[in-house]
C-alpha cells in the first residue's frame, strides 16, 4: 500500500481561503502547469497538497513555458473576472484586490490595478491612465492568469515539474503574468519565454510593455512596504511614458 501524499494546511481569512481555493481549481487546466489539489477549504482553513522542492533545470523550464501558454490560452470570462466561485473581494499577498469584470483591458487595468494603489502609494499616474489605451498594444482576449506569478510562487518540484502555488487568479492580459515573472527573477527565464512563444507568440512590442504590466505588482509592494518599491514604480511609469 503506497504512502499518502503530504498535505499543507494554511490558516487565513475565510475570504482569502475562498479566493485561493477557487483560483487553484480554475488553474487546473489539461496541459497546463500542475497546481496543488484542494482537499478542503472551509472558513479560514485551506488544505492542499504539499509539493516537495526540487532544483531548477533547463528541461523543466522549457516545459513550464509551454504549459504556461496553454494555461493562458484557456481564457477567462472577462478582464477582471474572478475564478468560478471566487469572491469579488480577493487579495494579492496582504493587499486587497478587487475582481470586477470590465469590457476592455485598458479600462480595467487603469481603474482596478493602477488607480486603487497609486494614490495610497503617493504616486501620480494620471498620465499613464489617460494614455493607457494607446500604451496597451493590440487587443487580446482575456487570459487565465495566475495573477501573482513572482518567482516565489513558481515551485520547482522534486518530480521535475514546475508547479504554480499561491495564486491571485483572475482574467487579465497574459503579458501581466510574464512581466511579473521577469520582475523578481526566474531561473532559465529566457528559455521559459522562448518555449512560451512556441505555443502562444506575443504581439510585437511586448518587451516595451513590460514596465506597464509591472506597475501593478510594484504599486502593491509600494503600498505594503514603501521604500525602494515606490522609486521602482516611478521608474516603470517613466519607462512606460517614454515608450
Automatic annotation (TrEMBL):
Give yes or no: UniProt keyword Transcription. Answer: no
What keywords were assigned to this record? Kinase, Transferase
Record keyword Transferase present: yes
Kindly give the InterPro entries that the UniProt entry links to this protein: Fructo-/Ketosamine-3-kinase, Kinase-like_dom_sf
Q: Which family does it belong to?
A: Belongs to the fructosamine kinase family.
Protein name stated in the entry: Phosphotransferase
Species this chain originates from: Lentzea indica
Amino acid at each position: 500500500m503506497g504512502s499518502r501524499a503530504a498535505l499543507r494546511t494554511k490558516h487565513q481569512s475565510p475570504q482569502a481561503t475562498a479566493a485561493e481555493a477557487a483560483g487553484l481549481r480554475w488553474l487546473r487546466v489539461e496541459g497546463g502547469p500542475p497546481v496543488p489539489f484542494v482537499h478542503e477549504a472551509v472558513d479560514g482553513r485551506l488544505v492542499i497538497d504539499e509539493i516537495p522542492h526540487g532544483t531548477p533545470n533547463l528541461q523543466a523550464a522549457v516545459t513550464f513555458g509551454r504549459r504556461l501558454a496553454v494555461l493562458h490560452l484557456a481564457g477567462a470570462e472577462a478582464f477582471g473576472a474572478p475564478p468560478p466561485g471566487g469572491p469579488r473581494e480577493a487579495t494579492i499577498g496582504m493587499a486587497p484586490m478587487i475582481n470586477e469584470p470590465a469590457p476592455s483591458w485598458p479600462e480595467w487595468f487603469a481603474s482596478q490595478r493602477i488607480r486603487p494603489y497609486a494614490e495610497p502609494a503617493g504616486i501620480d499616474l494620471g498620465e499613464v491612465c489617460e494614455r493607457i489605451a494607446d500604451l496597451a498594444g493590440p487587443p487580446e482576449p482575456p487570459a487565465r492568469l495566475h495573477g501573482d506569478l513572482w518567482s516565489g510562487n513558481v515551485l520547482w518540484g522534486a518530480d521535475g515539474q514546475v508547479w504554480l502555488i499561491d495564486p491571485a487568479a483572475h482574467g487579465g492580459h497574459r503579458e501581466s503574468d510574464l512581466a511579473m515573472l521577469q520582475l523578481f527573477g526566474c531561473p532559465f527565464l529566457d528559455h521559459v519565454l522562448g518555449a512560451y512563444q512556441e505555443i502562444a507568440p506575443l504581439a510585437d512590442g511586448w518587451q516595451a510593455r513590460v514596465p506597464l504590466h509591472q506597475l501593478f505588482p510594484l504599486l502593491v509592494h509600494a503600498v505594503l512596504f514603501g521604500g525602494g518599491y515606490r522609486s521602482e514604480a516611478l521608474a516603470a511609469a517613466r519607462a512606460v511614458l517614454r515608450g
